[in-house]
Amino acid sequence: MRRPSKLVLQRKKADGFTLIEVMIVVVIVAILMGAVAMSIPRDINDLMKEQANRFQAVVSLSQDEAIMQSRELALGFTESGYTFFEFNDSAWVVKSEGPFKAQKLPQNILSQLYLEGVSVSLDERVEVKPQVFILSSGEMTPFTYEFQLPEQDRRIKVTVNAIGDVEQEILDQ
Predict the structure, then answer these.
(1) Residues of the chain with pLDDT > 90: what percent?
(2) CB atoms < 10 A from the CB of 23, how many?
(3) Cα–Cα distance measured from residue 170 to residue 92, given in angstroms and rounded to the nearest whole number
């Protein structure tokens, strides 16, 4: 009987890649795709819609918070964003935690506040003070807050009525 040669006893080297090598390549490709996706600028209209949706959600949440905690809350607006307040010990105090911390809008989004249909002047240089009140009963100062892109006619209007119903409307002129 013939003995197997040395070559036959040696294991044949397989062609191809190991599972580890394939997984490393997949991870590298995923990281590169994530970096590319982060560097691509998002559509400014999507950014404006996202800001309006966030504002609508946080206003609804603040009404729920006022009712659940039996506390009076308020909103103050500036050119570049909005701030929540809470009434503590006979004074309005800025809320700084969670979803109620002060929000700055992206620089390329303009905003405008309307109280009782009248445009309110929003000034960055003046200390922000409560302008819209959210009572522990769930009632609110009715207002409209508009988001607009500079040099464009597209606006998103968020309207809140006296009982806290929040509606959003996209306006194209």
Answers:
(1) 45
(2) 11
(3) 33
pLDDT tens profile 97-153: 888 998 998 888 889 999 988 998 887 777 889 999 999 998 999 999 999 887 777
70: left (phi over 0), alpha (psi -120 to 50) or beta: left
Phi, psi (deg, nearest 5) at residue 30: -65, -40
**Lookup: tokens for 65:** 């918070």
Nearest to 128 by CA among 116, 140, 142, 111: 111
Do 78 and 111 contact (CB within 8 A), yes or no? no
Q: What is the DSSP letter of 140?
A: B
**Residues in a beta bridge with 104:** 81
HEC profile of 111-128: EEEEECCEEECCCCCCCC
Are the C-beta atoms of 132 and 145 separated by less than 8 Å?
no
Helix (H, G, I), strand (E, B) or coil at 95: coil
Question: The whole model's pTM is what?
Answer: 0.72
